[in-house]
User: Fold VPS9 domain-containing protein from Strongylocentrotus purpuratus.
Amino acid sequence: MADHEDLEFNPFYKTLQSTYWSRFEDAQAKRYLVCIPQTASLVGVNIDNNFLDTHLLKPSPMLQDHYISTDKNGSKTIIVDEAFILTTEGFSQPGRIRILSEELGYNKDYKPFKMLIIEKPLEGAVKGRRGSAGLSDEFLTPRTRFLENKQFLGMFPENRHTVKCLEESIHQFNQNYMIVQGYLKDIAKKLRRICEEHKQMFAEANHYIKLQSDGRLEEVLSVAVESYVMGSVHAKVFKAISAEKNPDDALISDKLQQLQGITGEQLGVAEEFCCPLPAAVVELARLDGINTPHEKLTCLHSTLDNITEEVNIHLRENLAPGHSPQCLTSDDLLPLLVLVISQAKCRHLASNLYYLENFHWVSSKHDNLGYSLVTFTAAMEYIKNTDFSHMKTNNNKIKKEMSIEELMAASKFAYGTVSTTSGDSTPTQRIFDQSSSVAPSSVEQQSTYQMKSLQMQLDNISRMMESSSISSGPTSIFGGFDGGSREAGAKGPPPDVIPASEHRPNRAQLGGFLAALQSDVLDCSYGKQD
Assistant:
């Protein structure tokens, strides 16, 4: 018995939403009372028109809180008495049934109607049947990773023989099945058949599925079987997919190269939605290293969630007083996703999307993973069919730091370093030579002023560098890691992650060197401008 019922998994409610939708829609329009027995009480119950007649009830025109069944003769009557329903006229066994909760729905005219979640059916309950396997919601949630699904399949002693049969089928495929280029659809059919056959074997042997009436355990089991099979054959299958989709992957790679330096505004994103998206870039950069279809799809879904979340944070932080934050629309989401794809540097985007479209067969009605695949497919088609070469890259931003080589070059110029062996003239001498038309006295004064200014700037830079803690390891000035510190075994170039601190309105999170540059009191700005 549950205090809260998830209607999405309730067999009666699902039947109303599908098989008997027209009757349910009519009941909503007439604002009937809908009595929904809890999931655990519906094991073995035949849900037909007679069952609907008893549980879709119209208000009595004469008495308050009295409701009449919707069969032709209106033969049954119930009374809603606070926390209970009293079955009175027309029932074979009048009695009292507890109301677990009440839901309020709205019809097409936005008028409310009541749905009561009740302890058991008003009539037609099957006696002596256990309605729930007693499994927690966490246990009935599909696993994501390959190892998690492998462990899940091994949790049930009655399924050990089925696990061995599945492992043998996978071994036979990896060792003996020859993949011929151009026949990827045949590979998908064979692997799908392996998954469905063994999923059926698991369901028939598993003791809990017969007790769990809402279908969630069966869904978890289906995901586990598919993930275990596809994770085990991924290396062989994805190699064939990559070979066939190599032209598309190469085209997308060229397009992503054109996108380097392109901003969201240039792709049509509203200015208020443009901000760094490091979390989304890092999440999507994992895609090539994931094996199972379900986890790859979850990665795509998380990427979209991260984009939305980071944009919402940016909007809230820059929200003017008295204004409401705007909502990110699909028109802005798509170009933002294109930018994230370009920064994550996915080398096999076309191959991955083909893999998900053809080798993922377990779908759930209760998540948005399918929507994520559609969104990424639309982004891929946009990338393939758009010419970005005419767009000018945004290279005119002032850099917030100078490289060591640039500092050394500036130092040599400021001090007028002269090579004693080559006899080259100093920068100061070249200034005099190029400015011969100027009076010597004015040239000397101008040169002295320039030298003092540059000297003061470089002394200030030296003090800043000394006060900053610069690690000898391959770390970036933002405190993150560069390509040299990527995890061992990781493949592909590192993603272009923009430091999250750049889109914050305050600058308190800058490192010592950048903070000192920001607080410079000289009347002359410096830094490199492309």
Notes: The mean pLDDT is 78.
